[in-house]
Amino acid sequence: MAKKNYKNIELSPKYVPKKSEPYMCPEHLAYFYQLLNTQKEEILQQNAATLNSVSTRNKTNATITGDDSDIAIAEQETTLTLRMAERDNNLLVKINSALERIENGTYGYSVISGDEIGLSRMLARPLATMTIEEQEEHEKRG
Q1: With 0-12 CB in 10 A as exposed, 13-18 as middle and 19+ as buried, what is 15?
Q2: Which of 26, 31, 119, 136 could form a disulfide with 4 if both were Cys (CB 3.0 to 4.6 A apart)?
Q3: pTM of the model
Q4: Which domains, from first to last, does the chain contain?
């Protein structure tokens, strides 16, 4: 029998992976694949809006005739917006990495030991790459 392709599985909107199902079965992978792609799409839309906002703000700032504090506030808003976009871009890199792990069959398994990360942890943190114990050890050494 052919193996189910997680990309083609239509899940119920109420579906949540269960521990009673085989770990990272096609349904689990479909769930995380869809979740991560939704997050990715939201970030890409936010980035487009941010870019438009910064572009508009820069054009507006060029015509600001206020005092130095008005100009400083406008520049600070632009800087904050760009920092938030940078944070989103870093998240996008992690999402793309997780999607690659789904594709190559390593999603849900530790990048250090290869052990199962665990369904509860993956549901809480879909971008997790280590078991809780490994993450704690990593942070101690940090």
Answers
A1: middle
A2: 26
A3: 0.83
A4: 23-107 (1.20.120.910), 108-142 (no CATH)
